[in-house]
Amino acid sequence: MTPQAVDYSDLIKSFARGRQTTSVKTAARVGPGPLLAYCIGVAGLEKFGHRRPLVYVAWGNDHWLDGWAAALGAVDIVTRQPIAAPAEPVSDLLKDLDFAGNNGWFDAPGKRDARRILQELDRLVGRNYAIGAMLAADHSRKSLDALQKL
Fold first, then answer.
1. Nearest 5 degrees, angle CA 55-CA 61-CA 62?
2. How confident is the model at residue 150 (pLDDT cuts 50, 70, 90)?
3. pTM score
4. For residue 77, what is the DSSP state?
5. How many CB atoms lie within 10 A of CB 37?
6. 3-state SS record for 88-135
7. Residue 111: how many other CB atoms lie within 10 Å
8. What residues does each domain of the chain span?
9. What is the dihedral sign for C-alpha 11, 14, 17, 19?
10. What's the CA dihedral at 44, 49, 54, 59 to 10 degrees?
11. Can you name the residues that pair with 56 across neighbouring β-strands?
């Protein structure tokens, strides 16, 4: 017996009624107001992530999504429940990591501090969660790539 994928297409269609929709492949400009973005990944968040409200429809391997959603206080449209914000000590470690990344984690002190902080975050929530939270904190893709390699 093969497990069947859950189909959320009706839920997404009903949520999309009366809202603008886009994807990274959409070249059209989008106006103000709520935006429903399909499977946009990091590239799409760079393009549309500063808009609020933004509805992100994800599937696949967006491993950083949990950290991003928790950092922003996102709401799961399936359950209609908010994603829990990071609790202490994770929230404090993420603040410290964000501060250490003021130069994109490219300078020696930033790398040193990030390595120390990431060891603890890796143990508590995992690297992808931390990357997602830093994405929510508006760090660039170049900086996030550097952080991922530490």
1. 40
2. very high
3. 0.77
4. T
5. 24
6. CCHHHHHHHHHHHCCCCCCCHHHHHHHHHHHHHHHHHCCHHHHHHHHH
7. 18
8. 9-62, 90-149
9. negative
10. 40
11. 37
Q: Which residues make Cβ contacts (< 8 Å) with residue 110, sequence separation at least 6? A: 100, 101, 102, 103, 104
Tens of pLDDT along 48-93? 666 556 666 665 667 888 898 888 888 777 787 888 999 999 999 9
**Which residues have a Cβ under 8 Å from the Cβ of 42 and sit 6 or more positions away?**
64, 135, 141, 144
3-state secondary structure of 54: strand
User: Which is higher by pLDDT, 126 or 38?
Assistant: 126
**Secondary-structure percent of the chain, ordered helix, strand, coil, rounded to 5:** 45, 10, 45
Tokens, residue 42: 């990091």
Q: How far apart are CA 84 and CA 74, in angstroms?
A: 8
Segment 32-52 mean pLDDT: 67
- CA–CA dist 42, 58 (Å, integer): 11
